[in-house]
Amino acid sequence: MSFALIRFILNSGIDTKVPVCYIVTINRSKKKGEPMDGFFNEYGGMYVAEVLRRPLDELSAAFKEAVNDSAFCSELDTIRRDYIGRETPLYFAPTATRLLGGAQIYIKLEGLANTGAHKINNAMGQCLLAKRMRKKRIIAETGAGQHGLATAAACAKLGLDCTIYMGEVDVRRQQPNVAAMELYGAKVHAVRSGSRTLKDAVNEAMRDWAAHPDDTHYVLGSALGPAPFPDMVREFQSVIGREVKRQCQERGVEIGAMVACVGGGSNSIGFFEPFINQKEPRLIGAEAGGIGPNVGENASRMTGNAARDGIMQGYKSRFLLDEDGQALPTRSISAGLDYCGIGPQLAALGKSGRIEFTSVLDKEALEAVSFFAKNEGILFALESAHAGAAAMKVAKEIPKDKAVIINMSGRGDKDVFITSPVFRPNEWLDFLHAEIERLESNRDIHESKLMKTSTEEN
User: Fold this and answer.
1) 363 a catalytic residue
2) pLDDT at 8 over 70
3) Pairing state of beta strands 90-92 and 104-109?
4) Residue-wise pLDDT tens digits, 310-341
5) Are 237 and 266 in contact (CB under 8 A)?
6) Kind and range of the H or E element at 138?
7) Considering 60, 238, 300, 409, which one is annotated as catalytic?
C-alpha cells in the first residue's frame, strides 16, 4: 500500500478505532476495454477502507435497481411535483439584460424549490432510496446548511431519523438553517476539528457511517466522494438541466452559455448534465475566489495555483493540497463553496476543456447579490451569486440573440448573518445589541426598544 493511500485513510474520516483491516479498494471494470465504473477518465473511483466497501457496493446495486424501477421513479416524480414544487421557473431578466448589454439573461429559479435551494432534489432522492433499502437512520454533512436543511426536511416527510454534521464556523454563519434543521427534528452536531468547515463535516459523517453501516445511510450532498455518489447525485440533480433544456426549446430560447457556481458541484453537474456531450452551449463554472489568489485566501481548485491531483475522502480529483498531500485552508464568504476539493466528473470536464472555470471574488459575489436584488427582485444565495457575477462578466461576450442561463441554486435568506454586516453594518449591530439585552431581561418583542432603520437615518 502506498504512503499516499495510507495517509488518505488516516485523514479520510474513517474511524481508525473500528477493528477492521484497512484495504484500499478501487472499483474498476474487470473486462478489458470497458469503462471503469465510477471513474471519469483518471478521476473518481472508490478509495475506501474495507469497512465501507460493503455498504458502498450495496448502495450502488440498490441505486441502479431503483432508477430502473418505474414504481420508484413514479413515486419520486410525484414528490418532485407535489412536495418539492417542480418544475421551477426559468425567468427572463429584462432589466439585467438591458443594463449588462449583450446576451439575454435568464435565471433558473431553484431557490423556489421547497427548502429554498436545489439540494432537496438529491436529498429526497437519496432518502427515498434509503427507505427502500430499509435504512432507519440518515446522516449528512452540510456547509451552507442547505443540504442539511433539505435532508432534515426529507427525513421529516419520510419518517427517518436524521443527524447532520456541520463545521462550527458554518454553524455560526448559517444560524437560520441550523434553527430550521432542528425544527424539522434533526440533530445538528457542530464539528470542532480541523478548519471547522465543510471538509471536516464530511470527515465526521464518514466516521459515523463507518461505525454504523447496517442501519445508516449517508446522504452525501455533493457530486463527489467514492462511487457511486458522484453518479447518484448527478442523476438526482439532472432534473434541473432537463427542465432548462425543455423550457428553452418550448420558448425558442437559443442558449449561448450556462453558468453555475461550483463548490463540490451538485448544482452545476445537474444543470450541465444534458449538455455535456454536446459542443455547445458554453458551460461555465464559477469557483470561490475569496479575498485573493494566495494560499488560504480562496477555494479555487481549477483556476488557482495551489491545486493538484490527489486522493481524499474516498475519491481522486483536484484538491488544494500541500506538498505532503494535506488539505490546505480555504476561504470564501460562501459556506457552500468553502471546500478544498471538486467533484471528479467536473474535474475531468474541466481538464478536457468542456467546462470553463473562472473564479469570483467575495466582493464580486456581494455586488451580484445587490445587482439582482435591486434590478430583478431576486435574492441570490451567496453561492449562486458567484454564478451571477460570472454571468455579468460573460454576457457581453454572447450575441444578443442568444441567452446566458444562470442557475440560481438557492435563495439568499439564509445569508442574513453574513450579508447584513456588509450591507447594513450599523443597523445590524444595533439589532444584535438590542436583542441580547431583550433576551437577557426576558422581555417580549413588543416591549423592545425602538430602532432606527438606514432609511430613517438617511
Assistant:
1) no
2) no
3) antiparallel
4) 999 999 999 999 988 899 999 999 988 989 99
5) yes
6) strand 137-142
7) 409
